[in-house]
Amino acid sequence: MSDPANKTTGMPTDNTRNTPTDKPRNTLANESEHLDRADQLAHVRERFVLDPATVYLDGNSLGALPHAVGERVARTVAHEWGELGIRSWTESGWWAAPERVGELIAPLVGADQGQVVVGDSTSVNVFKAVVGAIRIARQDSAARTELLVDEATFPTDGYIAESAARLTGCTLRQVPAAAVPGTAGPTTAAVLMNHVDYRTGELNDLPGITAAVREAGARSVWDLCHSAGALPVGLDAHGVDFAVGCTYKFLNGGPGSPAFLYLRRDLQDRFDSPLPGWHSHADPFAMAPAYEPASGATRGRVGTPEILSTVALEAALSVWEGVSIEAVRTKSLALSDHFLRCVRTYVPEASPHGAEASPHGAVSPHSAAGTPSRAGETAVSVRSLTPEEHARRGSQISLLCEPAERAGAVMEALTARGVIGDFRRPGVLRFGFTPLYTSFEDAEHAARVLGEVTGGPR
Question: CB of 359 within 8 A of CB of 152?
């Protein structure tokens, strides 16, 4: 029985979960049920608002809503703002919220207390961290006039790095992540790196790159947007100088939730922010004409914090009670392994020739899958861009759709069938695995529907 076709995409649009009927489907469905029964994090799923009719695999872009957020925001609006008004800056703890919420994030990124502050956007924090890192490096050696940036960086990081380089008189060099250890040298001031490549899901070597940058006498800045809340980072253990990250992905803080900034303790007194605001002043209410920076992580603040989104984030972080980041990493790898296995079962394998090249990451013939052509249609195939090795994998799987122009239609059809992921041009289908609420059944179902909408076994 075939599904009705979407008039726009030509893809099936049935949004029901089909029951496996053949042996491979039964085998994988049974395996998924077994894995879910054994999952020690399965109970955490109950802490989220989830649509039972959908499989949500886009937590790498926007995390799901935790149940605790609605009540907390409503109370903040009705009581703290509506009844207490301006008294809430002290009585409700608004003023100290950036540091208080930062302390909740710190253990998730491997930081001791007093080093993480919440506020502003990721972009603003990247700017503060990069300029601050360069200024410290230039204090140590005037010869340090170069800023290195991961060539596959998220576009905004690249834009800000270029501006920071102009502001500080540095030369900007884009290099592959793997080439940083051999490139950083006596003229390098700072290095800006993404922990996970947002397109391919590849995990860069934070310990190794950080050590090489430190050996070269330069300063490291890491963007943790696609790793914070998904895997252990170990900022303190690996000697990272500065780090930034958003909170609306794997930390589930909500759309536009404030970002965080990590300032390593022994560098805090040397951190010269390019955005000195009154909330980072040593005595904010002195209203002094001259700026005197506060001590500690507070030095990373700028102006008035986003209170409603900050308290929403604080409530969202309550889902981590009793959950270790190590357990999350273990489940994340198991989920993505299971998903890849299901994709290879449900979507026919492509030819080895079609799996040799990829825009990012190594791809083997064994990580490829494709579909036969339908009458009047170009054949569609998908192959994984995400490294097979666990040590090089974040918490998403990126599949390259060939031909690339069909990717949008494939993702649209998946969405119509209740499988929520996203795609990035020219043809990358991205599926994020958030172990706090993603089940193994979700992974199996998503792979099965992918096979169906691209013409695989039905």
Answer: no
